[in-house]
Amino acid sequence: MKLKLFKGITFALLWYTCIIWAVFFIYCPLIFLLFVNRRLYRKCTDIILSCWELYPASLLEIFMGCRVCISGDDINPDDGAILIMNHRNRLDWFFLWAALLHSTKPPAHRCKFVLKSDVRIIPGIGWGLQMAGYLFIHRNWEKDKILLKRSLDYFKSIKEKYQILIFPEGTNISKNTKEKSHSFADKNGLQRYEHVLHPRTTGFTFLAEYMKSNSQLDAVYDITVGYPKTLPSSETDLLLGNIPEEVHFHIKRYPAKELPSDEIPIKKWCEERWEAKEDALAKFYKPQTDRKFATDYKCDRPWNAMYFALVAWTMFTIYTVYLTFTSSIAFYWVLFSTISHIIVSYFSIGIQQFEIDLYNKFDREREDGETRRLNSSIPTTNGKDKKVY
């Protein structure tokens, strides 16, 4: 029990301290690039995040001994896509990082999560996710629709394809949320679900319609997560070392052309996916079963890269923390970065929206001007000069 607690505390400290000091010493210096070249800033922050995501996966699987099992389809990192997943507990997103790493070929996913706005003010991880361009919502649909549209338009303008993860249930399963889901089902004459919550389809429907019309949607990936043994519930479980022995993910890819075209059919399509999830999870959690989604699991791991990431990021964390308290320059840089992020997080809607504002102010105007100049330089012909080939 003491060893378990020690490993849990060590795991949490390494993971969280690495996040904070990576923001201070890697992400924050890139802020200056944001004022010079938005496209380059976005590429750099994306690459850094991809490199860092190996670290929590390595801590989870190598240090804590958690086995992440993947079945179904691979995720194509070149797809512009929507990822939808059931939300079993508050830590699903953490295990999903490892799942995304192992389910893409090569292991280089480009996923942005849709998260509650409160997450962006959390020291360290919230600041880093702002700079990584994640999408934050405020539970006000009129406001959220505008913010989502701005982010999607920006991604298209800079010619970057991403996978957008959304939890249609809106929150994780708990006694309170399950009772609300049952009440909704009873009121609308629907089946009561025991392993999922009835999905809120507004956000997904908007993303599917808008990304499809914006030529940003190649596929929808339906992900189902299950915990065959230990089931953590909150961040406290990480600290206490209550890490699941295994986490299972089943992935199904649906090409965008297979999705319905209108709002009501898309909503129905999402609801059907959740009905299928309930059936799959009912079988998964059935007593005296192997608790697997499929017999064929993908267990390939980039072990060399994971061991390297484990050592490199741990050494980086130790060194930068040491530097902070031995160098006055480093100390005041950390202090300045902390104050700046607190001000931005509490008095604006985030660095990620400031990035879009800068692009719209400078890059878009210049690109529109170049397009107009190009069009004006193309010779025009009257109808008599046209040739049909």
Automatic annotation (TrEMBL):
Region named Disordered: 370-389
Tree of life domain: Eukaryota
Keywords: Acyltransferase, Membrane, Transferase, Transmembrane, Transmembrane helix
Sequence similarity: Belongs to the 1-acyl-sn-glycerol-3-phosphate acyltransferase family.
GO CC annotations on file: endoplasmic reticulum
Domain Phospholipid/glycerol acyltransferase: 81-205
GO MF term (any one): acyltransferase activity
GO BP terms, alphabetized: phosphatidylinositol acyl-chain remodeling
Keyword Transmembrane helix: yes
Transmembrane feature ranges: 12-36, 305-325, 331-351
Protein name: Lysocardiolipin acyltransferase 1
Organism expressing this protein natively: Orchesella cincta (Springtail)
